[in-house]
Each structure stands twice: as structure tokens, then as C-alpha cells.
Write a structure and sequence with these properties.
heterodimer, A: mainly alpha, ABC transporter involved in vitamin B12 uptake, BtuC, 2 domains, two-stranded antiparallel ribbon, 4 strands, 73% helix, B: alpha+beta, Immunoglobulin-like, four-stranded mixed sheet, elongated
Chain lengths: 350, 121
């Protein structure tokens, strides 16, 4: 609040021309929030059900489901990188989690249903291995992060398709999962009115707290910000840059694994398209939330706000019954405009 | 020459994935405003939207008019079409009439439904 007051006083002290420019800057830097506010008002006027309690709880639930992947991508963006293989990694994790929890297992007929923690450990390990590959290529080859993760994205897609061919499954959708596993994820945490808040919201909160501690309270987190803002300076001051980059990508992989683990139970049917384009949502959310491609800048709270706002917009557009195909165009526009706004901030600051 | 100096300063201020960007604040502003306007247009198109369209393919039977419906609303099952020599079985989601459409469930997009006919002996 005091920050706002200070800004207000600073505005008053300016002459007319400077004031006009300062207001213009504020409008431009917050353009994305302004358009989202306009959208919420318009949609609420047309479809009042959008702002009803069940709808709001639904938005919060979906935000919780998508938060871990956004936090994973957020770490990569803080390194001035990105990760376009995130969605496919979630897909692979969902396939693995589902395959270990099928009541009639066509992939591994002799295996039967495994305990949930076996599935969780499996997806975290697989995620960390894939993250290691991403991080290693980023740190050692010095390739552009898009090229590295684009390659792994394709490789992972191939692995998903082959995985679903195992046993007698022949690429079919995996469904019919162990009820105990589904209950663990989608069971009732508490309910507001008649709307259930599922267990995965709690897990998402716990994961977010852990990520916050790692980013803000550990040496590794501080190294991550240092490498992101200036790799050479970090190297000179004794940070192991290669290890930091690899660890950030491994942590991201583990977070995608957890997202996949939750998604398999949440959606209850998993196939090769599960996780498709999730990275687009995650990257858009991070950029809206102020995690900058400049590197070394971004907070956990930014990722939360980004995911929430994006979810509000897309739930709203769904309430308007907008053609689903248009939503892709909106998503692309949001990423481009959010990046332009992000660029503008650093251009003006200089 | 005078023009080039500020441009150099501009791009050296970028880091990370933006380090190769060469753009002035003014041009960026135009781009941002353009993007926002495009989003507002889509939003107004959305607000003016009457909803999704359900089209009925009666596959040789009498014509069934298409319906508009909003997200979250159930489709009203239309009057069944008629066809000489056949009995109407129901509405299906695919042309081969394998997956029956459930009028108790909501759809979240345009749908085309196909009539299934059974020959009357």
C-alpha cells in the first residue's frame, strides 16, 4: 500500500507531460491485467453463472491442478531458458502412473495394481532423468533452450506412443484405474455448498510451499537466480553453473511427473494426447505473472497469479461458448503480448 | 549517424532470451495495443456469440433443424425424424452410429449428430 502511495505522490510532483507519460507507462505495463479485468466484467454480465461459487471453486481447483507444471517451467524461465517439452513430460508421467494403477493391465498383464507410492516414485524418477537430459544439453552444449527441449519433446512423444503399444494395449486409451488411487487424488478434501474441493488442491499447496522454500531459502535457489541473471558473474563468484542448470531442469522434471501423476487420476483416462500443449499454458502463465525471459527475475507468487488469471480467462471464454479453436489464437496472443509488455518494462527501466 | 546511437543502446539493454531484440518503446507500444485490441475483438465476438451449434444429420430421414446451445446447458432432444421403411433408433455421435449421444450430458463444442435407422421387415 505504501508503495502505491509513494507512486501517487511521485505522480503529483511531476509536470503535466511527465505525468501523462508515467500514466501511459503504468497502463502499458499492466495492460494484461486491465484486459483480464474487462473480460471478467463482460463475461460476468453476459453469463452470471461464471461468478457463482461453484464456478469460482472450479477455477481454483483447475488452477491447483496446473500449478506444479507452471512452477517447473518457471524455474527454467528464471534461468533465461524455457521448456517446451513440459507438456509431453506430463503426458508420459500420466501414462506411466496410469499403467501402474490399471485394474486390468493390458500393458504389463502379469504385474497387477501397484501401490500409489510406487507410481509416484516412478514418475518422479522418470521426470528427473528427462530433466537431467534437458539440463545437461542446455548447460554443456550451450544450445538455445528451445532447440534442446523441442528435441526432447519429440523424443518423449515417441516414447509415449511406444509405451502405449506395450503388451496387448496397441495404443489405446488407458482407463479403469485403481479406485484407491483415484480417491487419493480426487477424493473430497472439504466441500463448500455442494461443490467438492478435491485432495489434489492440498497436494498442490504443499508442492507450492516446497518450491517457495527451495527458490527463496536454499543456496540452490539463490544460485538459480544468480545463474539466470548473469551466468558469467555467477561462475566467477563460485557458483557451479552446470550443476545448477541441471538441477533446475531435474526439479522441473519431477514437478511435471507429479502433475502427470495427479492428471491421470483427475482426468481418469490417459492417451497419447494427454499433456498436449500444457507447456503453452504454463509459459503464458509465468510470463503474465512476471517471471521474465530476461532471466533471474520471478517469484512463486507470480506463477500462482499467472495460472489463476489464465484459468479465469479460459473458463470465462468457455462460459461464453466461444469456439474452442479460437482459444488457441487467444493463448498465442497472450504469450506474445505478455512478452512485449515484459520487454517494455526492462527497456523503460534502463 | 545520430540515429544509430540510441538504437545500439536499446538492444544492449536486453538480456536473456531478449538479448537479440531490436525494438523501441514506441514500436513495442503499438504492438501491445494491437494485440490487446485483437483480444478485445475476440472477447466481443465471444459475448455476441449465441453459443454452440448442434447439427442433426438425419441420413435420409426427414430434416431436423439445427439448434444453438450454451456451454453447460443440456441439448433438447428434437422430435425424431421419420423415414419410409425404417424405424428411428436414436442419435449417434459418429457416422457409423457406434457411439450413442447422451442427452443427459453436456457438450463443450459444436456437435453433429447422426440418425440411426433400422430396417422394418
Amino acid at each position: 500500500m505504501s508503495e502505491l502511495k509513494e507512486k501517487g505522490n511521485a505522480l503529483k510532483a511531476m509536470n503535466a507531460k511527465d505525468r501523462k507519460r508515467a500514466i501511459g507507462d503504468i497502463m502499458m505495463n499492466n495492460a494484461m491485467f486491465i484486459i483480464i479485468a474487462i473480460a471478467i466484467v463482460l463475461i460476468a454480465l453476459k453469463e452470471p453463472a461464471f461468478v457463482s461459487v461453484p464456478s469460482i471453486i472450479n477455477i481454483i481447483n483447475l488452477t491447483a491442478a496446473k500449478l506444479p507444471i507452471a512452477l517447473g517451467v518457471g524455474g527454467c524461465i528464471i534461468l533465461a531458458g524455457t521448456d517446451v517439452s513440459a507438456g509431453r513430460q506430463v503426458g508420459l508421467a500420466a501414462c506411466i502412473a496410469a499403467s501402474l494403477q490399471l485394474t486390468t493391465n493390458k500393458l504389463f498383464p502379469e504385474m497387477g495394481v501397484q501401490a500409489w507410492y510406487v507410481a509416484l516414485a516412478a514418475v518422479i524418477v522418470v521426470g528427473a532423468i528427462l530433466g537431467f537430459v534437458n539440463g545437461f544439453c542446455m548447460a554443456k552444449f550451450k544450445l538455445h533452450p528451445y532447440i534442446v527441449t523441442l528435441s526432447t519433446q519429440l523424443i518423449i512423444y515417441g516414447i509415449i506412443l511406444l509405451y502405449l503399444q506395450l503388451g496387448t494395449n496397441s495404443g489405446q486409451t488407458l482407463s479403469g484405474m485403481n479406485p484407491a488411487y483415484r480417491e487419493l487424488i480426487t477424493g473430497e478434501l472439504f466441500r463448500i455448498g455442494n461443490t467438492v474441493v478435491p485432495m489434489y488442491v492440498l497436494y498442490s499447496v504443499i508442492i507450492t510451499i516446497i518450491v517457495w522454500v527451495i527458490w527463496n531459502k536454499t543456496a540452490f535457489g539463490k544460485n538459480m537466480y544468480a545463474v539466470g541473471s548473469n551466468e558469467e558473474a555467477a561462475n566467477v563468484s563460485g557458483v557451479n553453473v552446470v550443476r545448477t542448470i541441471i538441477m533446475v531442469f531435474m526439479m522441473a522434471g519431477a514437478l511435471y511427473g507429479i502433475t502427470g501423476f495427479m492428471d491421470a487420476a483427475r482426468i481418469a483416462s490417459v492417451n497419447a494426447t494427454t499433456g498436449l500443449n500444457y507447456e503453452a499454458d504454463a509459459i503464458a502463465a509465468c510470463v503474465i505473472g512476471g517471471i521474465s525471459f530476461v532471466g533471474g527475475i520471478g517469484k512463486v507468487s507470480g506463477a500462482i497469479i499467472g495460472v489463476l488469471l489464465l484459468q479465469v480467462i479460459f473458463t470465462g471464454l468457455t462460459y461464453l461458448s466461444v469456439d474452442q479453436n479460437l482459444l488457441f489464437i487467444v493463448k498465442g496472443l497472450i504469450i506474445l503480448v505478455a512478452c512485449a509488455i515484459d520487454m517494455r518494462k526492462y527497456l523503460v527501466r534502463k | 549517424m545520430e540515429d544509430q546511437t540510441p538504437k545500439k543502446e536499446v538492444h544492449s539493454s536486453f538480456k536473456g532470451l531478449y538479448k537479440n531484440a531490436r525494438i523501441s518503446v514506441k514500436t513495442l507500444d503499438k504492438f501491445i495495443v494491437g494485440g490487446i485490441l485483437a483480444m478485445i475483438l475476440i472477447l466481443f465476438y465471444g459475448v455476441a456469440n449465441n453459443g454452440y451449434l448442434a447439427t442433426y444429420d438425419s441420413k435420409g430421414g426427414t430434416d431436423v433443424p439445427s439448434q444453438e446451445f450454451m456451454y453447460g446447458d443440456l441439448l433438447d432432444e428434437p422430435e425424431p425424424p421419420t423415414r419410409e421403411g425404417y424405424r428411428f433408433v436414436g442419435w449417434y455421435m459418429d457416422e457409423n452410429c457406434f457411439y450413442p449421444f447422451d442427452f443427459e450430458a453436456t457438450a463443450d463444442g459444436d456437435v453433429t449428430l447422426y440418425a440411426r435407422w433400422e430396417k422394418v421387415e
